[in-house]
Design goal:
single chain, 337 residues, mainly alpha, DNA polymerase, domain 1, hpI Integrase, Chain A, four-stranded mixed β-sheet, 4 strands, 57% helix, 5% strand, globular, Tyrosine recombinase XerC, chromosome partition, cell division
Length: 337
């Protein structure tokens, strides 16, 4: 049953390879838990699922992680019901513990521009051009790291069949396959386009023979397509060399892209389309980042805000209870999508 379902989500639903891998892990866990409890997969009751969810929470797993596991299990039992193997879904009414809504981390505009404009004259020119281009594309188009590594130099039947994306330099667009197998096109900015052209010149990407031998847009010295892990490492190194206040990872640049576009345009619907979010509620988290930015600007610039802060510091009444410290900045969270 597990193998049949995994084939279903991979072939018929065409879920991303990483999603299929996670489904395999979660369903293997379900099978092991059912075996330990002496139950068949089709005989698991809702009370047992709740017990397993409580055990995961007690072991320190966060609510978001538990929700992802339960979502996988719920989809599996829905499919079993469609096949006539179970009469009801034991996961349908089980919910994960409520997770706090934390804000994603985004760079400030100055820090993001500083990273994008950074040049390392001591690095290999080939590596420097490649790393500069991938930073510009991550920040300039808001791509996920999985979408970035799946890019080819140009469109091809093989790319479409295998779920890869590509760049179109003439149209200044990047075409990617996002979550849920949804394709979208995102504009490539002027600076990102120039960085890509420099990289392709050194890469040899305009030569037909080079494209045939390795169609990947971003590859390593050994000629193989870059992995998400290698991009994490290169970006972390580059951000440290550029002097950014925090180590940068690929999704932070996606958050920065969304936050900065929203701050400039105020067009939430356009940001949703650019990010490829299925639900606009996912995109709305960036309105909270935008409000944080506006609140800081107000506190720093408005005369009445400055006067209020000054009066709080200067007034010290006998027996007064000191004001509680401001809460620390929210830590990073990965929005759905």
């Amino acid at each position: 049953m597990l193998q049949a379902y995994l084939t279903h989500v991979r072939v018929e639903k065409r879920l991303a390879a990483r999603t299929v891998t996670l489904y395999t892990l979660h369903l293997t866990q379900l099978s092991a838990l059912a075996h330990q409890a002496g139950l068949g997969l089709t005989a698991v009751p809702p009370t047992q699922v709740r017990r397993w969810a409580a055990q995961m929470h007690g072991a320190g797993r966060q609510g978001r992680g538990i929700a992802l596991v339960l979502s996988c299990w719920r989809s599996f039992y829905t499919w079993l019901g469609q096949q006539g193997w179970v009469g009801s879904n034991p996961v349908s009414d089980v919910r994960a513990p409520r997770a706090p809504k934390l804000l994603p981390k985004a760079l400030g505009v100055d820090d993001a521009v500083q990273l994008a404009e950074f040049q390392n004259p001591d690095d290999d020119p080939w590596l420097e051009a490649r790393d500069a281009a991938l930073v510009e594309l991550l920040y300039g188009s808001g791509l996920r790291v999985g979408e970035l590594v799946g890019l080819d130099v140009r469109a091809s039947p093989q790319a479409q069949q295998q779920g890869r994306g590509w760049i179109d330099l003439e149209a200044a667009e990047v075409h990617v396959l996002g979550k849920g197998g949804k394709r979208r096109s995102v504009p490539i900015g002027r600076q990102a386009l120039a960085a890509l052209q420099r990289w392709l010149h050194l890469r040899g990407g305009l030569e037909p023979s080079a494209v045939l031998s390795q169609p990947a847009l971003f590859m390593g010295r050994n000629g193989t397509r870059l992995t998400p892990q290698s991009i994490w490492q290169r970006l972390r190194r580059r951000s440290q060399l550029a002097g950014t206040p925090t180590a940068v990872h690929p999704h932070m640049l996606r958050h920065s892209f969304a936050s900065h576009v929203l701050q400039s345009s105020g067009d939430l619907r356009a940001v949703q389309e650019l990010l490829g979010h299925a639900n606009i509620s996912t995109t709305q988290v960036y309105t909270r980042l935008d409000f944080q930015h506006l609140a800081k600007a107000y506190d720093a610039a408005h005369p009445r805000a400055r006067q209020k802060k000054a009066s709080r510091r200067s007034v010290d009444l006998p027996g007064a209870v000191p004001a509680p410290p401001e809460s620390p900045a929210a830590t990073e969270a990965e929005p759905e999508g």
